[in-house]
Design goal:
Blueprint lengths: L8 E3 L2 E7 L9 E7 L15 E8 L2 E5 L2 E5 L4 E4 L5 E4 L6 E8 L5 H13 L11
Antiparallel strand pairs: 1-2, 2-3, 3-9, 4-7, 4-9, 5-6, 5-8
Length: 133
């Protein structure tokens, strides 16, 4: 399945495909599928104050750390991440992983990931240089 445009957004090592955007659900939910290559440490610790996130494993295993507690999420398993919970994920295994993210309220969209990708591309894949400017 792909978005209505069939767009795959590359953010670092991640490949993201929106299946349901907020506009399609009257803002109630957004759903995207994402691929994480084997061995990838991809997401910096972060939190979401305006929505909850549920992760559903499709292939491989991702290790999610929520509020300091690691949890492996494999095919058919789900993990709920409440608003405000600090979390990140890695694929420390030797096989690629794929998962669904279900975001409620549906306020996270492809534009966010396009902006993050542009920032990473401009920074040459690394964090911005804080000494510039």
């Amino acid at each position: 399945m792909a978005t209505s445009t069939g767009e795959e957004i590359k953010v670092g090592e991640l490949a993201i495909r929106f299946l349901v955007e907020g506009e399609q659900s009257s803002g109630s939910v957004a759903v995207f599928e994402f691929d994480v290559p084997a061995g990838a440490k991809v997401a910096a610790a972060h939190s979401h104050d305006r929505y909850d996130e549920t992760i559903y494993g499709l292939e491989g295993v991702l290790t999610w750390t929520v509020e300091g507690t690691p949890t492996d999420v494999g095919p058919g398993e789900a993990l709920c991440i409440p608003r405000g919970a600090v979390h990140h994920f890695d694929n420390t295994h030797d096989v690629d992983a794929k998962a669904l993210a279900i975001v409620t309220l549906g306020i996270l969209g492809p534009g966010f990931f396009r902006e993050v990708a542009a920032i990473l591309d401009a920074a040459g894949g690394g964090p911005p240089d804080e000494g510039v400017g």
